[in-house]
Design a protein that fits this description.
Helix content is about 50%, strand content about 0%. It contains four helices and no strands. The chain has helices at about 10-30, 35-45, 60-70, 70-85. Helix 3 packs antiparallel against helix 4 (about 70-85).
Amino acid sequence: MLEKVGIQLSDEVRVSSAQRTQEIDRILSQPELAPISNNIEKFRHGKKFDPAWYVPLGERNLRTMARTVGKSSEYVIFYSGTSEVMHTSSYERHVKNPDTGS
């Protein structure tokens, strides 16, 4: 996948990644973790990707989770602004005019 965007991986990194993936799969396949895995599968709704980690807990998004646990202020301070930048809803932080520097 990374090769498609021009990033080359060494054989050492490939082998190490495969080994780590196998170890993660081994741990997650333990019988005592089956209820958690089954719950996540239920929330996948047939999609190819996993739901956000908080969805099986009954939360729709991080904002409602923060509200539920009484951390709305922390959400606004630590997540809200950075989320805006990461999801490019605030283009001003990503685009600069070379003539004016702003």
